[in-house]
Amino acid sequence: MSACNGKAKGNAKLLENLRDEDLVEISFDWQLWAREDQLPPRGDWHTWLVLGGRGAGKTRTGAEWVRGMALGLPGFSDRPVERIALVGETLEDVRSVMIEGESGLLAIHPKAQRPHFEISKRLLTWPNGSIAQMYSGNRPDGLRGPQFAAAWCDELCKWRYPQETWDMLQFTLRLGEQPRQIVTTTPRPIALLKQLLKSEGLQIDSSTTSINKAFLAAGFVKRINEQFGGTRLGRQELEAQILDDRLDALWHRGSLDQLRQKEAPELTRIVVAVDPPVTSHAKSDACGIIVAGLCKQGRSYVLSDETLSKASPLKWARAVVSAFHHFEADRIIAEVNQGGEMVEAVIRQVDRSVAITSVRATRGKYIRAEPVAALYEQGRVHHVGSLPLLEDELCDFGPGGLTNGKSPDRLDALVWALTYLMLNKGAAPRVRSI
User: Fold this and answer.
1) What is the SS3 assignment for 267?
2) So what's the pLDDT on residue 434?
3) What is the dihedral of CA 344, 346, 348, 354, to 10 degrees?
4) Which residues pair with 196 in a beta bridge?
5) How far apart are alpha carbons 119 and 129 in whole angstroms?
């Protein structure tokens, strides 16, 4: 029995003879139920970095810390913190995970303490007057102007603009005697995380998925460990390990970071590339959807990763057409190895007017990817912002494919897009306005 399971079961025995009102009060006492790694560090610190596997309790840890700061609870803050920033990957993630999720801020408060959520104002207000405001890792400039005494950053390694958003947030933490922030994330070896690990005033806690199995669905941990245990993906997603680059990978994170741009210049050509799955059941491959463009100087910019998991043909076709119109693309590049004429037919079912070029693979994935990787080495391809899931695939793709054995669907779509834009003489530019 793990320590946290023993604590939970031991506490449960103490509750058997208590009154209902006492049970309610105790059920919200985080100090009673939390693991040691889920409680704030003691001493003088500025940033608390909570690294955790999937389902390890990171969200609950972050939400309880915010609650403790807003209410001035013992062990968290000597007095209520009046202004708090909530920063997630997107505003939708802040709402659906950090605020309204099962372990989010609304769920962990007893009714009398629960903050009022005004989604139109992106604002939480506690009965004592403390407030928390919502911000997105996709919009660094949104943090210009406000000021806070505390901040909760969730899934930092998935932010589109991690460095820019983080830098803007640091300027806002200027209220109170000791501004502090908590970062809850499954680790990826991005430059910002490596930078944080070397910073002063840092406290780190790390937890695996297995440590929280008492609060996960029966059989989940066993099944997920059987599937991913011992793999590179499992070490990152379940054991919360920060992994170095795969030595034989075609791409490396340091190079991608050097080629990263905040925005693209005027583009002469934009395409949406799609690598559709064969089927749409629960174990199907994802549908890789990548948007990329070419500038008049001959460099390409990867604009967006719109990849979908477990999508029906109609769903992924709608996503492709939506990206085509949103980015004002010129053409859809569709791989037809698996679906043949059906691929183009389902896209035209959504919009008959879009321009489509069908492509068919005649060589293996690694051989097709090598000339595209060479374009990166020549400094001719840039990523606009961070594209974490795509970059995970790129940096884990070697001669034998991905270490987890799955299909590199994002990478495949990227290869088709850049091959068309930069290695296909038929992709002539046209005059456009962005």
Assistant:
1) strand
2) 35
3) -60
4) none
5) 17
The string of DSSP codes covering 75-97 is TT-SS--SEEEEEESSHHHIIII
Distance CA 210, CA 221 (A): 6
Read off the pLDDT of residues 8-18 as tens digits, 9 standing for 90 and up: 555 555 556 65
Residue-averaged pLDDT of the chain: 88
Q: Is the dihedral of CA 59, 61, 63, 66 positive or negative?
A: negative
Q: What is the pLDDT of residue 29?
A: 86
For residue 342, name the pLDDT band (cuts at 50, 70, 90): confident
170 and 309 inside one domain: no
Amino acid at 263: E
- Determine which of 231-240, 259-268, 297-306 has the lowest per-residue pLDDT on average: 231-240
Kindly state whether residues 103 and 231 are assigned to the same domain: yes
> CA-CA distances (angstroms) from residue 268 to 74, 289, 302, 425?
59, 20, 14, 14
- The pairing of strands 397-398 and 381-383 is unpaired
| One domain, residues 110 and 210 | yes
Cα separation of 93 and 101, whole Å? Answer: 9
β-strand 131-136 against 83-88: which pairing, if any?
Answer: parallel
What digits encode the pLDDT tens for the residues 108-126? 999 999 999 999 999 999 9
Structural domain for 260, as ranges:
253-422
Looking at the structure, tell me whether residues 211 and 268 fall in a common domain. Answer: no
Q: 96 falls in which pLDDT band (50, 70, 90)?
A: very high
Write down the pTM of the prediction.
Answer: 0.80
Helix (H, G, I), strand (E, B) or coil at 165: helix
User: How far apart, in whole angstroms, are the C-alpha atoms of residue 270 and residue 294?
Assistant: 6
Ordered DSSP codes for 269-317 = EEEEEEE--S--STTPPPBEEEEEEEETTS-EEEEEE--BSS--HHHHH
Those residues with Cβ within 8 angstroms of residue 430's Cβ, 6 or more apart along the chain or in another chain = 268, 269, 330
Closest CA to 131 of 149, 153, 155: 149
| pLDDT mean over 41-53 | 94
Nearest to 355 by CA among 276, 414, 251, 427: 427
Range scoring the smallest mean pLDDT among 32-41, 127-136, 162-171: 32-41
Residue whose pair of structure tokens reads 């810390």 in the numeric block: 65
Q: Domain containing 57 — which CATH number?
A: 3.40.50.300
Give the residue carrying structure tokens 């889920």. Answer: 38
